[in-house]
Amino acid sequence: MPITETHELHKRRFGRNLGVALCLVGFMAIVFGLTVAKIRQGASMEAFDHQPRVSITPPVEGNQ
Amino acid sequence: MSDATANTVAAQTGEAQFGDYVALLKPRVMSLVVFTGLVGLLVAPGSVPPMIGFAAILFLAIGAGASGALNMWYDADIDRVMKRTAGRPIPSGKVAPGEALGLGIALSVMSVAMLGLATNWVAAGILAFTIFFYAVIYTMWLKRSTPQNIVIGGAAGAFPPMIGWAVVTGGVSIESLLMFGLIFMWTPPHFWALALFMKSDYHKANVPMLTVTHGRAETRRQIFFYTLPLVPVALGVAFTSIGGPVYLATALVLNVLFLKGAWTIWKRPESVAEADEYAVEKRFFRFTLYYLFLHFVALLVEAALRASGLGIW
Known about the structure:
The complex is a heterodimer.
Chain A: H1 8-12, H2 14-41
Chain B: H1 3-12, H2 18-24, H3 27-43, H4 50-74, H5 76-81, H6 97-118, H7 121-145, H8 149-153, H9 155-158, H10 160-169, H11 174-197, H12 199-205, H13 210-213, H14 216-236, H15 245-267, H16 270-275, H17 279-307
Helix pairs in contact in B: 3-4, 3-10, 3-17, 4-6, 4-7, 4-10, 6-7, 7-10, 10-11, 11-14, 11-17, 14-15, 15-17
């Protein structure tokens, strides 16, 4: 059910809630920016994904 | 219930504004951490993408802020007594102690984890140790038990350039250790000069600052004697890969002035200082801030000269 009535508490805490919201948005932007930077740097884009992946499995001697 | 009563009740129950939580992170201390950490990062050999450098300094600042929040949580009782700190968020009743503890722990974990993921685990490890050192070794143990509190505790403020350096190089070297040493050796004379003119506060709070345990004359003497090992460390940086003639010239001038100021303070009788309201001590304290700032600016200048092919050694 949507909150239709604005309580005095909502007004009192508006600044604080806005600050937290901006911090979260900022954090998302930083994680996104870091991801882009790491990929551009050529960091590994493949990792363990719950099943064997040949491309990231270390080569076994004698099999090559 | 009147508005005034409502506000008091709100304050006592931790009805804080966003700015009060920011104040818990000691933004002024953070600015020093950001500056020295950034210099460590910029003078290091090699480079990191700007986004990673920005994130590293941000998480370094948040980590430092988190240790500040933990410090304010633990020290709320003495902050309440001292005039300089009575307006802080916890003693003034704006933030509940538990909130400060929670914020401090959450931001500590987040900043170390994010620094590790964004850069490397050597930098993150040094940041974790810095937070532990400031919050546990300094705040909980040394500060209330020994007049050497700021001598050893000063290490916490000295780690940021090492972290900046480790962000780029992934390790520790003589250059980063000397930058650490510069801040570490600078801290005692800097804080004891402050303690000389903030006289009644530490007495009232029973914090065993040197002025309280050994007297003011001894503190003046110690300021000078702790300046002596600072000078070779500051000059020594000039002869490493991050130094150069600009840094050497800057360091020479600043260290002569520092020694002169420390000597003047040592030889000054307390009665004269009281008569002029500690004018010399206050001037020396301000100078110590410029001293550190200008050493790191000189390192930046040397890095810029090297980058443009004008580096001499």
